[in-house]
Write a structure and sequence with these properties.
heterodimer, A: mainly alpha, Formate dehydrogenase/DMSO reductase fold, 11 helices, B: alpha+beta, Alpha-Beta Plaits, 7 helices, about 20% helix, about 20% strand
């Protein structure tokens, strides 16, 4: 599948934003984050800016961005519509959460209630985003039970590491908690991703050229002539091959840049802060690495996915 | 509304005979000609008269080789929307632009409200939907909804353009929901099949597989050697001609 910038950026940025929101809501409810209104307000604002940037970028993908509002209507059947609705609804409790934190302070009852509500809505957005892909049967790498947990874990990891990168400027004790949470989420997300990659590498094809043409009863089927001499929309959109050619190397880069590197920086940063300082630089650097690495991972999620229409063109699916 | 309506009795669709299709692309050309000025028009073409032509086709004709040895075939294979009974292209649509008609089962796109998100083309296993880069909306086969009910054209023309164009009569149009219709009878008689049934989309369109070649009862016996010296010229010529 063609890894269009708009969609890859949307799922990465919105994943980090809504993941941040989830952690801010939960960690504030537990009472381990700084109570300062200045911190809470700006942290929630950062999360919402990330989410909004992703949503805006996604409209670039549309043939008619001015009609985007229509996408909110079919939530009964369409996961894309559900994602649109929930992503916007989230801004209500999330906006209230940020305001309450800024005015009433962290861990105040109103802040906690709105924060938990925002956390649930944020995770629901990420889950519906995952289901857009997981519900598509023709793409076996997406129509997979690991896709939903993968999206959630990656959002929680990128969200946690962003929270840690903000907390480090305010309160060293909270930094250790947030860093620990990010480390745990990172380990789980990496394990999930490695499991996903192994699963899609060994899974059988979704269909064959024989079942696609119904000619299997004659024996093996080969494509002899294509309908047209030039590329077309189907091949550009569904027959993207560059990612698969370099999949192994790109996966290694994603693992080091997105997971191993940032997790080492996290540990070094927290230890350095305990010894005197340096975390203010190292933790944001870790967050940046994680975001770039997850962007690459999401690019691969598209680029490695194969669609059954390519069977008609004599390619694998 | 993108919810699939209760299935009606009528299921209009095509039956495509892979035994008689000659791969002439007339169906695709007539489809393009009709639809570029009809309900789905325009079907944009970029660079139509130079390299890198690129445009929307609602019907594309592939050619395959199937099998090996004496049983192998060259099969021409038209591919278009199958007007599925479980069309995920409809249910994934976030706007309601993509819909399935309750009255005859035709799957259509309302280009007036399509936002061009392309998700429906991802959801179709058969590659039946193509994005119009120029108009920013999705295009697909309409089963020539603007012909089949059109009272302004003569009755013989009230079939999809592809069916009307086919010189080999490899394309048949009718109600596959009615077991007594000509197309249903044809499907029953020839063992018509669904494409990619494992996807669970329940296509309405059926494909008639190429007929098996009759297998000779026993291999032909080799001819007895004929002494060439004794027979006259006429008999020698007859012998040569029959031995070919």
């Amino acid at each position: 599948m063609n890894p269009a910038f708009s969609v890859v950026f949307l799922t990465t940025a919105a994943g980090a934003g809504y993941g941040m929101l989830a952690w801010l809501g939960v960690l504030d409810a537990v009472g381990v984050l700084p109570r300062s209104g200045w911190f809470g307000g700006s942290a929630v604002a950062t999360a919402l800016v990330l989410a909004a940037a992703g949503l805006l970028a996604s409209t670039l993908h549309l043939g008619h961005p001015e009609r985007a509002w229509r996408a909110l209507s079919q939530w009964r059947t369409s996961w894309l519509s559900r994602e649109g609705v929930v992503s916007l609804v989230t801004f209500v409790p999330a906006g209230g959460f940020g305001l309450a934190w800024a005015l009433a302070g962290g861990a105040a009852p109103v802040t906690v209630v709105l924060g938990l509500l925002a956390a649930v809505c944020g995770l629901a957005t990420v889950a519906s985003q995952a289901m857009i892909y997981a519900s598509l049967k023709p793409i076996r790498q997406w129509h997979h039970q690991a896709v939903l947990p993968n999206f959630l874990l990656l959002a929680l990891y990128s969200g946690a590491i962003c929270v840690a990168a903000l907390v480090v400027w305010v309160e060293p004790t909270a930094e250790r908690t947030a860093g620990g949470v990010a480390l745990l989420a990172g380990a789980l997300a990496l394990a999930g991703k490695l499991g996903y990659w192994r699963a899609i590498d060994t899974a059988p094809a979704a269909a064959t050229i024989e079942s696609a043409t119904g000619l299997g009863f004659l024996g093996k089927v080969r494509s002899l002539e294509l309908p047209h001499t030039e590329e077309n929309y189907l091949l550009r959109e569904m027959g993207f091959v560059i990612g698969r050619r370099h999949a192994h190397r790109l996966r290694q880069i994603a693992i080091w840049l997105g997971f191993a590197g940032p997790m080492v920086l996290l540990v070094v940063g927290v230890v350095a802060d305990a010894l005197g300082g340096g975390g203010e630089v190292l933790l944001p650097l870790a967050a940046l690495g994680a975001l770039v690495g997850i962007y690459l991972e999401r690019w691969l999620f598209f680029a490695e996915a194969t669609h059954t229409v390519t069977l008609y063109y004599g390619r694998a699916a | 509304m993108t919810a699939i309506p209760q299935p009606g009795a009528k299921k209009l669709g095509l039956v495509i005979d892979l035994d008689t299709c000659v791969g002439c692309h007339a169906c695709a050309v007539n489809c393009k000609e009709w639809n570029t000025s009809g309900q789905s028009g325009p079907l944009t073409d970029f660079h139509p008269y130079e390299a890198k032509q690129d445009g929307v086709w609602l019907n594309r004709i592939h050619t395959y080789e199937a099998g090996t040895g004496t049983e192998s075939r060259t099969v021409h294979f038209p591919r278009s929307c199958l007007h599925c009974e479980e069309p995920a292209c409809v249910t994934v649509c976030p706007t309601g632009a993509s819909y399935k008609r309750a009255e005859d089962g035709i799957v259509l796109v309302n280009a007036e409200i399509c936002i061009g998100c392309k998700l429906c083309s991802w959801a179709c296993p058969y590659g039946a939907r193509e994005f119009d880069e120029d108009q920013g909306v999705m295009r697909k086969c309409t089963l020539c909804v603007d012909r089949i009910y059109n009272e302004n054209i003569v009755e013989a023309e009230r079939v999809p353009a592809c069916v009307r164009a086919c010189p080999a009569q490899a394309r048949h149009f009718g109600d596959l929901g009615d077991p007594d219709s000509a197309v249903s009878q044809l499907v029953a008689e020839r063992g018509g099949i669904d494409l990619m049934p494992e996807m669970g989309y329940k296509p309405v369109n059926k494909y008639l597989p190429p007929r098996r070649r009759p297998v000779p009862a026993a291999p032909a016996r080799p001819l007895e050697p004929v002494p060439t010296g004794g027979a006259n010229a006429l008999l020698r010529w007859i012998d040569r001609a029959l031995s070919r």
